[in-house]
Specification:
By secondary structure, this protein is an alpha/beta fold. Helix content is 28%, strand content 26%. It has a domain of 135 residues: P-loop containing nucleotide triphosphate hydrolases (Rossmann fold), CATH 3.40.50.300. It is globular, with a radius of gyration of 19 Å.
Length: 264
């Protein structure tokens, strides 16, 4: 896999407070990397540095020349007094070819919401629209900051499965930032546990048993992964309603019970 981004020894201090210290991180094509950590651990600051929005005090950051990044923010508020359809929202701030907009809507399964008012969308629907907007840039690296915030449990599962399908179809790298450990760890290739420095990193199952991870989040966090160690005979639509799978005898499997090349 070709390297998209490489950070070495990243550090940042504000006054007497150490925000980040000696942080290393790599993201390659087709790889999902999840950055986890408690509130105040430096996740948002590190994300800003990786995106080039903030300069570190120490360390080096190398991005592939001409790297295109699609970004899904943690929050974006649309005024309910502003008449703005999904299709119009995807045309901001620059007009996009209509065929490209339609493709992004289909890829994120919200084509039926093209004329819906953005302020009336549910949390899960809006996150899919934000993902569609990010895909319009044809990103080599897709960055999502707490993408499942404000979405119900079933919607979160489906959103992470959608992100994985996008990764597989497009071959892009994905950086997820989250504190929903038991969800994102079941849908990622590499986990980086941050608390100003990298406490531990590696495959999800290994990180979940690491003493540093246990110290930060407690043993129950690791036990939560067991929720996903079962087969599913259905999936859920955007509203959370169950939809039977066509191939009930061959249900999808989540990462921690699948083979290495089957993330779900």
């Amino acid at each position: 896999m070709s390297r998209l981004l490489e950070a070495r020894g990243i550090g940042l201090t504000r006054g007497d407070r150490v925000i980040l210290e000696n942080v290393d991180l790599d993201i390659s094509e087709g790889e999902v990397v999840t950055l986890i950590g408690p509130n105040g651990s430096g996740k948002t600051t590190l994300l800003r540095i990786l995106l080039g929005l903030e300069r570190p005090d120490a360390g080096n950051l190398h991005r592939r020349s001409g790297l295109t990044i699609g970004y899904v923010p943690q929050r974006l508020t649309i005024s309910p007094t502003l008449p703005l359809s999904t299709r119009q929202f995807l045309q901001l701030p620059h007009r996009q070819p209509q065929g490209k907009v339609e493709q992004a809507l289909r890829e994120t399964a919200v084509e039926h919401l093209a004329e819906a008012q953005v302020h009336a969308l549910s949390g899960g629907e809006f996150q899919r629209v934000l993902l569609a907007r990010a895909l319009l840039h044809e990103p080599e690296l897709l960055v999502l900051d707490e993408p499942a915030q404000g979405i119900d449990f079933n919607g979160q599962l489906d959103l992470y499965q959608l992100i994985d399908r996008v990764r597989q179809d497009r071959g892009c790298g994905v950086l997820l930032v989250s504190h929903d450990l038991h969800l994102v760890m079941a849908a990622t290739d590499q986990v980086i546990c941050l608390n100003r420095h990298v406490c531990c990193s590696g495959e999800p199952e290994a990180v979940s048993q690491h003493p540093a991870y246990m110290a930060l989040f407690g043993p129950r966090a690791a036990q939560a992964l067991a929720i996903y160690q079962h087969h599913h005979d259905h999936r859920h639509d955007i509203a959370g309603e169950p939809i039977p799978l066509r191939q009930r005898n061959n249900p999808p499997r989540l990462r921690n019970e699948a083979s290495a090349d089957e993330p779900f």
